[in-house]
């Protein structure tokens, strides 16, 4: 919540332990709790800022006020919760596709069109080599 322009994709697991209607109820409940948490955070920040501005000697609190104003300006985008059954390969692929779809969204991630340094490709290749080696555990 302190990183400017953050994007969060909530993921609900253990869908296999719930009935289909329970999944929707829980999805709605989780998203409502997230919205309530964000609203509370916004109200708390506004309250702290108002307290500092209304203090007898606000010049002593300029640093705190600036940090709070900076936190207040940070936007947080919450995407729709993705419910997955982690024991189902198709659900894992669905989650992967959802993540890739969002990451490629230039409105959410304007930096996606930026060319990455060559070292990123080297690191990615090393990770793939490790993942494909026989030493890697079967569960990943």
**Arithmetic mean pLDDT:** 86
The helix-strand sequence is EEHHEEHH
Tally of contiguous helical segments? 4
Unreliable spans: none
> What overall form do the CA principal axes indicate?
extended
The order of strands across the largest sheet is: 1-3
Q: Into which percentage range does the β-strand content fall?
A: 5-15%
Pick out its properties.
140 residues, two-stranded parallel ribbon, 4 helices, 4 strands, 54% helix
Descriptive account of the structure:
- This protein has 140 residues and is mainly α.
- It has one domain (6-113).
- 54% of the residues lie in helices and 7% in strands.
- The protein has helices at 20-53, 62-73, 89-103, 118-132, and strands at 6-8, 11-12, 76-78, 82-83.
- The chain starts with 5 loop residues before the first strand and ends in an 8-residue tail after the last helix.
- The mean pLDDT is 86.
Secondary structure layout:
Elements (H helix, E strand, L loop, with lengths): L5 E3 L2 E2 L7 H34 L8 H12 L2 E3 L3 E2 L5 H15 L14 H15 L8
Parallel strand pairs: 1-3, 2-4
Q: Quick gist of this model?
A:
This protein is mainly alpha-helical and 140 residues long. The protein has one domain.
């Amino acid at each position: 919540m302190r990183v400017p322009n953050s994007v969060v994709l909530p993921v609900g697991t253990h869908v296999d332990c719930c009935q289909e209607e329970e999944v929707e109820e829980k999805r709605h409940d989780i998203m409502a709790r997230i919205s309530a948490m964000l609203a509370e955070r916004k109200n708390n920040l506004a309250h702290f800022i108002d307290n500092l501005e209304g203090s007898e000697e606000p010049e002593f609190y300029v640093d705190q006020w600036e940090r709070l104003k900076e936190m207040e300006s940070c936007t947080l985008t919450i995407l729709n919760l993705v419910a997955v059954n982690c024991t189902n390969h198709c659900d894992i692929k669905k989650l992967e596709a959802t993540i890739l779809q969002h990451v490629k969204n230039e409105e959410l991630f304007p930096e996606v069109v930026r060319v990455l340094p060559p070292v990123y490709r080297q690191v990615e290749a090393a990770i793939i080599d490790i993942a494909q080696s026989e030493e890697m555990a079967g569960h990943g």
